[in-house]
Structure formats: structure tokens, C-alpha cells
Amino acid sequence: MNLLLLLVAVIPAVDSRPLATADAVKIVAVVCPTQNSKKGCSVCPDGHAASWSFDSISRGHFLRPDSDDILVGTGGCEPHANNFGGSVLLTNKNGQLQKVWYQGGLISNHCRKVALRGGRDILLCEDTWSGQGEEDLNIYSVDLTAPEDKRMNTLLRASDTLRACYAGGQMRRAYVERVELPDLDNDGLPDLRVTVQLGFTAKITQRQFERFCAGPNPKGPPAPPTRPHHFEFLLKPNGYALAPSSESPDLLEAEKP
Q1: How many independent structural domains does the chain possess?
Q2: Angstrom distance (rounded) from CA 143 to CA 221
Q3: Labelling 234: which of 50, 85, 125, 217 has CA 20 to 30 A away?
Q4: How many angstroms separate the CA atoms of 44 and 111, rounded?
Q5: Closest CA to 139 of 173, 177, 166
């Protein structure tokens, strides 16, 4: 079973969309005017020659309430630690498209715009990551005016470790069941509620390890029963904050019950 099939497309009505050829032509003319391909660049941001694709586009008032900005999700040029991608921010100034910055590891291919009370937009995004048998779905907000190391605010990570099983370990089954945008504090703004199903196996025996966990492509043990957990975040002037009454997202990364 491909666990990633259970860990995608949970945020409703996303605004990110695949990059059309007409948009790509305009963007490559700004980002790499002399070293471009059909839908990207033939050189990476650090200057070395490689395929750098432009995959998605999100438009909004990301820098100011009256700005016209474009965030382009890119692929290539980045290592596994950065999930093989990044994003380029561009803005329109006096009718001219200008590059603002590029950030590796800022994945923006599946995002929804969220308007702050002041009129500026942030993004609510999701992305998957996998490695060494672990399958994660990350939900995070992105504030494009923040310093680079603070632009991505991880809200929660549903980390499934069934295929990373080992003898003596209690493995975690976790997946996002539902994402909702209710007004939790009656201020007229869309807050966030995420429901995650979570459960743990009993300790893996040596026999189970040999049957389910060993080999180059382990399937993992049978999935354990799960129960729902609810995580709530309030939309504040500068982005999302965990609601005081919410469960803590830290329990999603617990090693055992």
C-alpha cells in the first residue's frame, strides 16, 4: 500500500494551480532570460547547469495589501532535505514583473490563500515527505514578508512510521482525515481545525519484523486501530496560533502511547 496516497490533498479549495505555458514564458524571461527552457530554467539558482522546472503558481497580495505578487513553486536543484524543490517570489512594479527572492525547501505547490485582517495574504499549505520508511504530511503557513528562516510556520506533521518498523518498536499510524476552516472565535476570520487519525501498534516482535519489516521494500505491519485527534489554530494578525483549548501537535510525533 502506498501510504502517500492517504496523505495528500487535504486542504480544501487550494489556490495554487499548474503553471500555464503563457505564465511560464513571462516568468522565465525574468528569472533566467538567457538560460531558459519551455517551462523553467536550464541553470539552478546557485549557477550550476541543471533542469529547474516551474510547476505551480499562486497569486495574491503577499507583500502588501495593494501589491500584486506571484509565488512560483519549483522543482529540481534541491536535495532530499529540501524535498527537491523551492519557490520563487515575484512582484509587479509599475507593470513590470520583478524577482524578489528564491528559497529552496519552501514548497508551495498545494496552498490556499488566507487573507489577514489588514488585507495582506498568507498561504496555508500542505506537502508530503518520505524517507527511510517514514511518510509525513506537513501542514504549514507561509508569510512571504517574514525573514527566510521564519517564512514557513509548521502547524502540524502527521508522521506515519509503519514502514520504518523495527523489532521492539511501537509504530505509529497517522493520517490527516479532514481540514476545516471554521470561525472558532467569532471574529469573522477563517480559523483552522485539523482532524488526524492516530494509533500505535503493539511492540513489533522479531517474527513480525522478519515478515513485515525486513527486505528492500517493506510493507510494514498491519495498521492498528486509530482514533481522531483535533487540532485547532486561531488566525491572528500575523498568522495562525495554536488555540489554548487545542490538543498539542507534539503528540503526533510521540514514539509510543
Answers
A1: 2
A2: 39
A3: 85
A4: 24
A5: 177
Same structural domain for residues 36 and 161? no
- Whether 257 and 178 share a structural domain: yes
The 3 state secondary structure assigned to 197-236 is EEEECCCCCHHHHHHHHCCCCCCCCCCCCCEEEEEEEEEE
> Which helix (H) or strand (E) element contains residue 73?
strand 69-75
Cell of 87: 519557490
Strand order in the sheet with 111-115: 111-115, 121-131, 134-142, 152-160
At 226, list the grid cell.
486509530
Choose the final residue of a domain: 109, 138, 166: 109
Answer yes or no: pTM beyond 0.85.
Answer: yes
pLDDT-derived band at 5, boundaries 50, 70, 90: very low
Are 195 and 228 a contacting pair, CB within 8 Å?
A: yes
pLDDT tens-place string over residues 92-105: 999 899 999 999 99
Domain of residue 33 covers 17-109
Residues 6, 132 share a domain = yes
